[in-house]
Design a protein that fits this description.
Elements (H helix, E strand, L loop, with lengths): L4 H14 L10 E4 L6 H8 L5 H7 L15 E4 L4 E3 L24 E3 L6 E3 L7 E6 L11 E4 L12 E12 L6 E17 L4 E8 L8 E4 L6 E3 L7 E8 L5 E2 L4 E4 L12 E6 L18 E11 L4 E8 L3 E2 L3 E4 L4
Antiparallel strand pairs: 1-2, 2-3, 4-12, 5-9, 6-7, 6-11, 7-10, 8-9, 8-11, 9-10, 13-15, 13-20, 14-19, 15-18, 16-17, 16-20, 17-18
Helix pairs in contact: 1-3
Organism: Geomonas terrae
Protein name: LysM domain-containing protein
InterPro entries: Bact_Kbp, LysM, LysM_dom_sf
Amino acid sequence: MRKYLGLAALLFICLTTTAPFAAAQEQPTIYTIVPGDTLWGLSQRFLRDPYYWPNLWANNQTVGNPHFIYPGQKVRIYSDRIEIEPFPAPPKAEQPKPQEPREEPQAATFAVNGSEGFLIENGMKPSGIIISLYQNREMVGADDIVYTDIGRVNGGNPGDRFLIYKKIGPVSHPITNVILGQQVMPLGELQLSEVEEKASKAIVTRSFLEISAGSFLMPYQERKLTVPLRAADRDLTGYIVQTQTGNQALAVNDVVFLDLGKAQGVQPGNMLYIVRDVVPDQRYTQVKIDKLPVEVVGALVVVSTGMNSSTAVIVKSVDTVYRGDRVEMKKSR
């Protein structure tokens, strides 16, 4: 895990601004940094909780480039956190503070809005198609009327709900050029109001984007608007294979698609680091160096998974992220 030193440093600084509720009367242990100490090493030594760092980093958007610790600098070690004193730390008299109620820790979650999209694998077939719009309009939105090819012969009934999608196009892997599936964009939701033998009338109950004839329908599934963050239970390595918007340059809050899914052990809530290899410059050394620690340029959270692909949202970036960037997470040993 040493290659995540820069990232660990980022996350460690977050601790100084995200843990205001200390246990009543708890006295910290004061530790002085010595040469060779690293933030990651201190965290393993005193907290033994590597899974705490990704959540801190995702929830502290103001933290940018890595910071460093120096010999002689002091840290305050509590049972649930470590606080780094500014360097140099001037002597400061501690003022007694009134007791504060301890806040119960809450499970870390990540919010989504349901419009992220996904990749269709293995030729998934739709439940139906929107065949016409009210008064032959070109586009409709929420509360508008549409007509579908779902009828009683398909088992359709008044009140049935469906999700509305459109296909964007095939997605090829940026490294292997293998077609991974079709990119799908959610448009909204509808509910059948009147059902005939082979067709039905429906009302659009929710729309993310404008809806046109030809959009396809899938059975309604309740969307989870919050995804609990969880640690990966195995080593994960993959690539950003496509972006929701088609843009090549990406930043925080952009939606991306990965070549990792359930078959590879990815779960919603997994946070992966976005990394790039650093090429050694052999001009300045007599020893052949095969590789250097990777550069960590960001992090993303998986919000939904298919069998061999997943949808994720970028939650942190210290540099521009691109389609084709590698993502990875190492299981704690």
